[in-house]
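Following the same procedure, the fold was encoded as tokens, giving this record:
***
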Amino acid sequence: MNLFKTVLLVGSGGAAGSILRYLTGRVISRYWPISFPLSTFIVNITGSFLIGMLAGFALRYQYTDNIKLLLITGLCGGYTTFSAFTFENLNLLQSGNIKTALLYSTFSVVTGVAATWAGLCLVK
């Protein structure tokens, strides 16, 4: 595949995913202004569910590499955010909220894996 086309597909999906992440975070923060990093948690869990669904659809409907690059690598990669997750955990730890950091880390990983599995199972 042409490298330029690949970069355009991943970049387009990533741009859309980043915009969706930003808008989702704004809505969540506006209606649920709490100290727990709920926006990042919800984005990462819904993104995990979405990537599971897209992977299932890709298997079922034989998605082309272009579609997988656009939706899975680009869109889901731009939408979810591991860097924000780790930064928020570091902030929680540095501010002495050790229990919240442990809860957030554990709940995010367990729920994220479960959401990916659920999304995959839903469409298989």
